[in-house]
Design brief:
The protein is of the alpha/beta class. The chain is built from eight helices and twelve strands. Keywords: Polyamine biosynthesis, Spermidine biosynthesis, Transferase.
């Protein structure tokens, strides 16, 4: 019996594979190659330019951790910006907070939204919520316009390859901060401590010069390189402010103990960032 396997190779020295039951979507959008696979164990899987973005099985560890930590730190965010996030997973989590009046998703590729809305039904179609607004635009251009302000900004981006590379630059972080209301908080996808330590340190270094309470935290995602990914928390409000808040209902990964533990860094990595750490 022939088996079909999808293999991802983000790094030249590391691969991982998922067994594929069916290819549901395979197309070249104006911006990237989009695959939607039905896989064994992990279920439906979104792949962009050969890199796994999410699966039905393990996405909660990513979407809950990138959203609720800055949302809880703020306490009562009314306006939220999600950079990228066209799959709708981060939007679903943001809308669990009753204080939210508007959540804008700034996504470059409309097809990511359309395909994800059709296939990731467990997200409950957050796009139908009247508080949700989709802006199909480059995030740099959207933020450079300087027209809108937000209480929380979530940078739910792909890896720093091609057009996405500049979303990891100091210039982009400054643009996000310019769009942030006083007391606001930002969380960004910030790569993996084993494979991307130099990039993380570079980002942490310039972020420390921009806000009072930067911090790096991490989560478990079996289908991401190394089995996990990290985030940069960027705010003048310490992340610990969120520990005393009421957590949204219906979470599958995050709880108060996971929240706190996410900021505990393995010793090898803590040493690499020791001179930068503020609240860890």
């Amino acid at each position: 019996m022939n088996e079909i396997w999808f293999s991802e190779q983000l790094h030249p020295y590391y691969r991982k594979s998922l067994r594929v039951k069916q290819v549901l979507v395979d197309e070249q959008t104006p911006f990237q190659h989009l695959l939607l696979l039905d896989t064994e164990f992990f279920g439906k899987t979104l792949v962009l330019d050969g890199i796994i973005q999410l699966t039905e099985r393990d996405n909660a560890g990513y979407h809950e951790m990138i959203t609720h930590i800055p949302m809880l730190a703020h306490g009562s965010p009314r306006r939220v910006l999600i950079v990228g996030g066209g799959d709708g997973g981060s939007l679903q989590q943001v809308l669990k907070h009753p204080s939210v009046e508007e959540a804008i998703v700034c996504e470059l590729d409309r097809r990511v939204v359309e395909v994800s809305r059709e296939h990731f039904t467990a997200f409950g179609d957050p796009w139908a919520d009247p508080r949700a607004r989709l802006v199909v635009q480059d995030a740099f251009a959207f933020l450079e316009s300087g027209k809108e302000k937000f209480d929380v900004i979530i940078s739910d981006t792909t890896d720093p390859i091609g057009m996405a590379e500049r979303l990891f630059s100091e210039e982009f972080y400054r643009l996000m901060l310019q769009a942030l209301n006083p007391g606001g908080a930002i969380a960004t996808q910030c790569e993996q401590m084993f494979f991307d330590a130099a990039l993380i340190r570079e980002i942490f270094t310039f972020v420390k010069g921009l806000v009072e309470h930067p911090a790096y935290y991490h989560t478990l995602i079996p289908t991401y390189p190394g089995g996990g990914i990290g985030f940069m928390y960027v705010s003048n409000t310490p992340w610990t402010a969120g520990l005393s808040r009421t957590y949204p209902e219906g979470l599958n990964y995050m709880n108060p103990k996971v929240h706190q533990a996410a900021f505990a860094l393995p010793e090898f990595f803590r040493r690499q960032l020791a001179d930068l750490l503020v609240d860890q």
